[in-house]
Structures are given as C-alpha cells and as structure tokens.
Amino acid sequence: MAGQTLEIQTPDGVFTAYVARPAQTPAPAIVVLQEIFGVNQVMRDICDSYAAQGYLAICPDLFWRIEPGVDITDKSEAEWKKAFELMNAFDPDQGVRDIRVVIETARNLPDSTGKVGAVGFCLGGLLAFLTATRTDANASVSYYGVGIEQRTAEGERLASPLMMHIAEADQFVPPAAQELILAALKNHPQVQIHTYPGRDHAFARQGGDHYHPADAKLADGRTADFFKTHLS
Q1: Number of domains present in the structure of the chain
Q2: In angstroms, rounded to a whole number, what is the distance separating the alpha carbons of residues 222 and 58?
Q3: What is the pLDDT of residue 3?
Q4: N- to C-terminal Cα distance for the chain?
Q5: pTM value?
Q6: Which tens digit of pLDDT belongs to each residue from 82-127?
Q7: How far apart are CA 190 and CA 115, in angstroms?
Q8: Which of these is catalytic: 61, 74, 98, 201?
Q9: Domain of 214?
Q10: What is the rounded CA–CA span in Å between residue 146 and residue 169?
Q11: Which of 170, 200, 215, 220 is catalytic?
Q12: Active site residue 170
C-alpha cells in the first residue's frame, strides 16, 4: 500500500510523519515510534502492517529537530555510528512533547475514530513508556525500551494500559536494569509485561541480526490483541 506524508504543526515549526491508511475509515490510530535509525523502511513496513490490520498508522520524524528526514539502516558501521550520535543528541522529554502533538493531530483527523494508541521500538520503546505516563494515549506498547529503568517512578502517573516486551538477553538493557523495571512495574494494574528468554535487543525487527521469527510473532500477536481490546 502506498504511504503518504502528513505535516505536523508545532509552535516551533512543522515536521512530517509517514502515514499508512487502512482500507476502511474512520479507524483507530496507532502512532509508531521509531528506533534510532529514523523513519526508515522498517518503520514504514510496520505502519503498513498496522494499516492492513485496520489502523491509521502514523510514524512521526522525531529526529526533525536534529536532522529532518533521517532514513538509515542497521547494516553498516557508519550508519550505526550516525544512529548513536542522533540518539545521544535527542531529547526524550522534547520528543514526548512532539508525540503529544502527533496524538492530538491523529485524534482530529477526519479518518480517525479519535482513539489513539502508541507503539515504540528501542528508543521508541522508551518513548512509548513515557507516552503512556505523560499523554492521553488510550494504550501504549513498548518493545525492548532502552533507559526505562531510570524512569520507573513515572509509572505512578500511568492512567491508561501499557504493554511491555522485554528481551531477557538484551545487550542494551542488562539484567540489573530489567530487575528494576520488573520490581517497579510488574504489579501495576495498568501494566502487562512479557519477557522473552534468550532473546536479544530488536528480536522483532525483521531482517535484523537478532530477529527471532517465533518470538516476534508471539510479541506481535500479543500487541495486536492488546490494541484490539483497548482501541476498538
């Protein structure tokens, strides 16, 4: 399916988002929050997949304040170097403020039902957690979020459902960090946490070095059921 570009207006300027629309509208919206590689083919494919499931899928260019239009892969050392430079320059707090504008925009699109979820991967997994604690998103899903252990106190703000997928062998979220996350959030009434033994970071990224088809299918199926429950 052919994606489109949506312009998002903020007080600081305009940035863009990739949009995939479902066959039938109005539909609930899902904001797809990028990895450290920008709005690349992986993110566009995820949006297209959600559109095929009946959602209005929107992937905003969250690096726009640093460098608009980042679209790189995980296939070369130079791209990894650039990705980490972008991540280190990125302000997650400002990123969540931009996501809040995307959510508001999505709620008011003519082909939206007004229900909006968020799903994020890696850096986007952290942002999905912060979206759940700081915005009015109806439901959020975090895949292997990096840095959540430093912000678990924000779980007290959670007022809408959050699902978390944690890779037990995640090189970027070591066991001590996972223990902090689980201790703080596993018994929260709004949180569902799934852990995946033996899986490394980005196990759900098709084509990635650590992609695991069976556990990716399991995680994605849990996410699909979660969104069907909370966005219908």
Answers
A1: 1
A2: 20
A3: 80
A4: 23
A5: 0.97
A6: 999 999 999 999 999 999 999 999 999 999 999 999 999 999 999 9
A7: 17
A8: 201
A9: 4-231
A10: 13
A11: 170
A12: yes
